[in-house]
Write a structure and sequence with these properties.
Blueprint lengths: L2 H10 L5 E3 L13 E11 L6 E12 L6 H10 L4 E3 L6 E6 L6 E13 L2
Parallel strand pairs: 1-2
Antiparallel strand pairs: 2-3, 3-6, 4-6, 5-6
Length: 118
């Protein structure tokens, strides 16, 4: 199973709506309560014997993301062999208003890294 498939399965264990890349299938009229994951970047190791692949998990919720959601995301992702929380990045929170409404939408971004040998 490929890493992206592993991530999809891990996140589906904690959220019903999981998308890769962007949530283009979510209509503006539907609740914005979903999780999106994507590749962030790939860096060669200093000794050129492997790579560090980085991934982003973004949890989007109307109103606010539950306070313990980052723990759920980290726990689910940690079940993937070799996947680790990227300690060089903070967990970030961004805000917007849902178009055509006054509803606040919060997005929490959590970054992960996984080593890979060629």
């Amino acid at each position: 199973m490929a890493t992206l498939d592993d991530i999809q399965a891990a996140l589906e264990s904690i959220d019903d709506a999981v998308y890769y890349g962007v949530a283009s299938k979510v209509e503006e009229s539907e609740p914005w309560n979903y999780t999106v994951f994507s590749r962030d970047n790939t860096s060669p190791k200093e000794n050129l014997t492997g790579y560090s692949e980085r991934f982003l998990v973004a949890v989007v919720r109307e109103n606010y993301v539950p306070e313990d959601m980052y723990l759920n995301v980290i726990e689910a992702m940690a079940k993937i062999p070799g996947m680790k929380l990227d300690r060089s990045r903070d967990i970030e929170y961004l805000y917007t208003a849902k178009p055509g409404t006054r509803d606040v939408v919060e997005m929490m971004s959590v970054y992960f890294t996984k080593g890979r040998k060629p």
